[in-house]
Amino acid sequence: LALNPWDVVLCISGTIISCENAIVVVVIFYTPTFRAPMFLLIGSLATADLLAGLGLILHFTFVYFIPSEAVSLLTVGLLVTSFTASVSSLLTITIDRYLSLYNALTYYSERTVTRTYIMLILTWGASICYGLLPIMGWNCLKDSSACSIVKPLTKNHLIILSVSFFMVFAVMLQLYVQICKIVCRHAHQIAVQRHFLASSHYVTTRKGIATLAVILGTFASCWLPFAIYCLLGDYSYPALYTYVTLLPATYNSMINPVIYAFRNQEIQKVLWTVCCGCFSSTMPFRSRSPSDV
What we know:
Radius of gyration: 21 Å
Structural class: mainly alpha
Number of strands: 0
């Protein structure tokens, strides 16, 4: 089998994704103070992206060194599960951010922890079910005419995944619009109470909205091309189109640690102490609201 440069690029992307997210997973897992709902959700996102990176590496390895239909189904199932969990984890983080602002007074309660665990169970339960479908027989290995742009997934399976993505994106968009409204209202109230100038209020509000725009814009620019092509594309189309739209989607898993983990001050402190060789898992941290992340 001739080596496809696009597969090499995907494998390299998977390696970078795995290294980045492995750092996040290890930091959150080995730091006892990182058990707040916010960190559990970030850990879920990092775990999903880590599995996605490993899936890309395994897919490359098995395609070129251990070709097997059964193994191919397993790696594709792993990729479907991990990327679905990644997108779903982004939705849970968005929901958590919205609730931390909308219900600020009751956010730090047992109810929040329970809700977080429920969201995690639903996220991974649904993702695993999606990933098991091709392994359980819903694939196009015996009928190439039923194939989608991503073999061996069927066209109908990919349509379901794409429609699910657009539903998640629509909910995230609506939630971020509501978050922007709350941020603007809070900034105005603070400006009035502290007698800030109108320009200060404008700068604060613009900064908050710009941050949300970058988060949502990054997600959309990475995933929308592939999701749209999944609906419009056909198995007879050149594979180049699939690679061109799929590669940016994998970049989302590469960018997620930067946006959601490495920008967090508590995680930064742990990383700095590890680099300095003076790590202590009992370091005191100031608990922050998810809206600060």
